[in-house]
Every structure is written in structure tokens, then in C-alpha cells.
Amino acid sequence: MASGTSSSVLQPRWKRVLGWSGPVPRPRHGHRAVAIKELMVVFGGGNEGIVDELHVYNT
């Protein structure tokens, strides 16, 4: 970075969820998750076998 320039660094922040509605994913590993704007998307993974479930949460 050149001297005299500034950068904007995004800092992750956690927020406690006090309540929710809808299905909750079963515990799993090997899944993929991504945050896109106000959405949290969780796909796949498994615990006792592989699942192809897709969960989308509006944060």
C-alpha cells in the first residue's frame, strides 16, 4: 500500500440470536457455509451419512 493511502478493513462481529423460527440444521461436519449480505447459507455435510440439505437464514 502506498504511503498516505487508507484502507477499509471489515471486522467480523458476532451477534447473539435470541430466537428464531423454522428448521434448525442437525449437527454436522464437512458442510459449506457462506454469508451473502444479510443471508447465511449452509449446505451439505453430514454426521451419520451425507446430507444434501440447504438452509438459508436471514440475519
Automatic annotation (TrEMBL):
InterPro entries: HCF1/2, Kelch-typ_b-propeller, Kelch_1. One of its GO terms (molecular function) is transcription coactivator activity. It comes from the Eukaryota. The keyword Hydrolase does not apply. GO terms for biological process: chromatin remodeling. It holds the Pfam family Kelch_1. One of its GO terms (cellular component) is histone methyltransferase complex. This is Host cell factor C1.
